């Protein structure tokens, strides 16, 4: 029995977490969930959206599945997601984007992976109000963080049979910060002669992605560009409801969907659990539970192929109907 932390989140988090736990239980995979609440709901009792017990639980179990957690705007709390990534040093954010069966999108054959640096850049949270008309945010890029994310991207490419790693920057404008990221990529790339290299500016990348995403394979980006581009690529495969992600560090890994807590559809039995389920499937692979990962993935694909899906990807099924259909298709 493997013990995993489950952060069930807020907004649609609890609904999609329940769906995934039901599917996992029905599949027979031996996972013991250690459920940890976080986010807006716990502030009243614990004074913070991310109590220490959550961090301790992940440190103990080494692996977590995380539903979206809202950070209240403007109440002095640091983003739960950013804090979690920093505390656990989850330096690599990986977002695979591949077409799903029967989910109609503009392009077929999208199969790319966004590897985003997760710990610095404008997300370091170094901001100041200079005066009432001016605010500043500092963009921090270090050689150490750039090197480990670029190496991670190349290692990922080698392990997963990928052919190319393309670095994405705006080094023509941010010559020092993005320039350092690009230089570091070039140095690291020398250690991987079998992987094709490519350099692109982030604006050009965005244009090319919406023209023909099949031109791209593995993309490695600093934090902010990675955040924006991975939402764009989520759109290429059917939107946030199907976009999975993982945050990987040296000791721990947290698997989570790209989407937020979607408060607009909370409690309406409308939420698509696919992104969290795909994140859970990746988590099973990380735990070497390949047979169960495949079993659940097959059931998901069979369900989508039969035309049963939630409203966000063109169907009529409720969260419960979709979940039950996946369970029926587990063989
Ligand atoms: P955050 O700032 O936390 O990323 P956000 O408001 O930018 O949140 P989401 O909460 O991800 O973004 O929601 C964006 C839109 O996508 C909303 O209209 C929401 O209903 C929809 N959406 C997000 N996730 C899902 C899902 N799993 N199923 C169906 N619709 C979803």
What class, by secondary structure content? Answer: alpha/beta
Order of helices and strands: EHEHHEHEEEEHEHEHEHEEHHH
Helix share, percent:
40-55%
Unreliable residue stretches = none
Q: Spell out which ligands are present.
A: adenosine-5'-triphosphate
Q: Which percent range describes the beta-strand content?
A: 15-25%
* Average pLDDT level: 95
Radius of gyration: 20 Å
Number of DSSP helical runs: 11
Shape, per Cα inertia axes: globular
Distance between the termini: 21 Å
| Main beta sheet strand tally, sense and closure | 10 strands, mixed
How many beta-strand segments?
Answer: 12
Strand order of the main beta sheet, please? 2-1-3-12-11-4-5-10-8-9
């Amino acid at each position: 029995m493997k013990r995993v932390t489950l952060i069930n989140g807020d907004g649609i988090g609890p609904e999609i977490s329940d769906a995934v736990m039901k599917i996992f239980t029905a599949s027979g995979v031996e996972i013991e969930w250690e459920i940890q609440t976080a986010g807006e709901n716990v502030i009243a009792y614990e004074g913070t959206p991310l109590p220490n017990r959550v961090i301790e639980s992940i440190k103990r179990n080494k692996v977590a599945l995380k539903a979206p957690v809202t950070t209240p705007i403007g109440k002095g709390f640091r983003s739960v997601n950013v804090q979690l990534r920093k505390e656990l040093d989850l330096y690599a954010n990986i977002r695979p984007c591949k077409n799903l069966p029967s989910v109609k999108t503009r392009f077929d054959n999208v199969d790319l992976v966004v590897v985003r640096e997760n710990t610095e850049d404008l997300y370091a949270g170094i901001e100041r109000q200079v005066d009432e008309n001016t605010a500043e945010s500092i963009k921090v890029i270090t050689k150490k963080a750039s090197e480990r994310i670029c190496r991670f991207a190349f290692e990922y490419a080698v392990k997963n049979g990928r052919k190319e790693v393309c670095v994405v920057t705006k080094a023509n404008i941010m010559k020092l910060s993005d320039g350092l990221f690009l230089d570091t990529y070039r140095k690291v790339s020398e250690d991987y002669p079998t992987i094709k290299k490519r350099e692109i500016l982030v604006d050009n990348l965005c244009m090319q992605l919406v023209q023909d995403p099949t031109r791209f394979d593995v993309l490695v980006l600093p934090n902010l560009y990675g955040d924006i581009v991975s939402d764009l690529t989520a759109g290429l495969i059917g939107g946030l409801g199907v976009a999975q992600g993982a945050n990987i560090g040296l000791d721990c890994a947290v698997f989570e969907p790209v989407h937020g807590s979607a408060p607009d559809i909370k409690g309406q039995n409308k939420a698509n659990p696919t992104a969290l389920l795909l994140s859970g499937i990746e988590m099973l692979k990380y735990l070497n539970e390949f047979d169960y990962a495949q079993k659940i993935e097959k059931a998901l694909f069979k369900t989508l192929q039969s035309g049963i899906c939630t409203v966000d990807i063109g169907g009529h099924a409720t969260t419960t109907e979709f979940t039950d259909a996946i369970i029926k298709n587990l063989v």
